[in-house]
Amino acid sequence: MLIDILTALAVVVAVGLVFGILLALAVRFFYVEEDQTEVKIREALPGINCGACGFSGCAGYAKAMAKGEAKPNLCIPGAEGVAAVLGDILGVEVETPKDMIAFVHCNGTCEACPSMARYSGIATCRAGSMIYGGPKSCKYGCLGCGDCQSVCVANAICIENGVAIVNTERCVGCGLCIKECPKKLISMIPQEAATVVYCANKDKGADARKACKHACIGCKKCELTCPEKAIAVKNNCAVIDYEKCNGCGQCAEACPTECIKKVFFPDIPEGFDPFNK
């Protein structure tokens, strides 16, 4: 009996030893040396895998840069600091990336855009928008369930008075909230932007105004006022071209519904870590 047990144990040990040797040999002969430049680049990136650079994640972006297939200034969350480090690693001059932030094109507060029905389903914007566009009177507006807030890696989004608001002192510009919003209300705009449009309603003026007091009515007063021709009404809603806008604010003064406003977006304070939630 004891001999049988010892024999079985010896067989198991022998088999394990053989497979261990085979695995060691496989590792030895099939080992592929990792590109050290790629490793350094990957370590320099934030590691949040947001995809704002246009690649699947930080690893994909690092691999593309190591092969010379991507520029080192595409990491929006990393901004100037990361771009400078990547430039040093690659030994190239880097064009300073423009600071971008997420902005919610809606000011449909509870008072301006009341609910037309009571929704008691799954508490997400995606689920709510599937039922006639959601319970709010404006079918283009923010539902305020916080889908964008739930994916924000920097805890930069909160819901106030039924509308999502971005705290630019925390926003790193990763763009994850843009992908999550079912209404497509969020876009990336330059942090230096001085004027914004708080509306995305595509209905004609009278219908838009019935839905929300702050809606763009497509009157084109902003378009006619702008000295730089930087704002235009497209699909019944004003859109700003930030390459042309000089921030004079004349469009905001001309807007009868106050959906266009002058703004100031403060930067992340020096030494503050937006990822420290």
Quaternary structure classification: single chain
- CA distance, first residue to last residue: 62 Å
Mind telling me the C-alpha Rg? Answer: 27 Å
Number of domain units: 2
Number of strands: 8
Cα shape = elongated
In the CATH scheme, what's the topology name of the largest domain?
Answer: Alpha-Beta Plaits
Can you tell me the residue ranges where pLDDT is under 50 for at least 5 consecutive residues? none
Q: What would the average pLDDT be, to the nearest integer?
A: 88
By CATH, the architecture of the largest domain is named 2-Layer Sandwich
> Main β-sheet: number of strands, strand sense, barrel status?
2 strands, antiparallel
Strand fraction equals 5-15%
What order do the SSEs take from the amino end to the carboxyl end, as H and E? HHHHEHHEEHEEHHEEHE
- Helices, by number, come to 10
Based on secondary structure, the structural category is alpha+beta
Q: Which strand order spans the largest sheet, edge to edge or round the barrel?
A: 1-4
CATH class of the largest domain: Alpha Beta
Percent helix range: 25-40%
